[in-house]
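2024-03-11 09:14:02 DEBUG pipeline.ingest accepted 1 chain
2024-03-11 09:14:02 DEBUG pipeline.ingest length=112
2024-03-11 09:14:03 DEBUG pipeline.predict start
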Amino acid sequence: MKCERLTIEGKNLDTLIYDLKEKFSPSYVYTSYSGNVILLVFEKFYFRQKSDLSGILMIDFENDNRCMINIVVAGGKSGLMRLDPFRAENSQLKRIREFIYKMADDKRWRII
């Protein structure tokens, strides 16, 4: 399992959700009753390893101009030794991180 936390500051952060949904096509989306916490869950099957890889993005809006994103990627390991020879978890985490950084750069958000 690989995890990372990012804090983003900027205007119009609500567009972040739409962009993430469009890019990663989550199979499950949960929004808290307050609307401050969004959970996106997606899966991808890796034929090389014959295993499912799950990604979870939890976006917690502190206010209109600041949110925290917790990224969790798990399931890329396979076999008796639970190895990840193709580094699927690292690859998926990097893909998500790079997308968020590019989006933040395009929209002039600051990542702390």
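2024-03-11 09:14:41 DEBUG pipeline.report The chain has a mean pLDDT of 88.
2024-03-11 09:14:41 DEBUG pipeline.predict end
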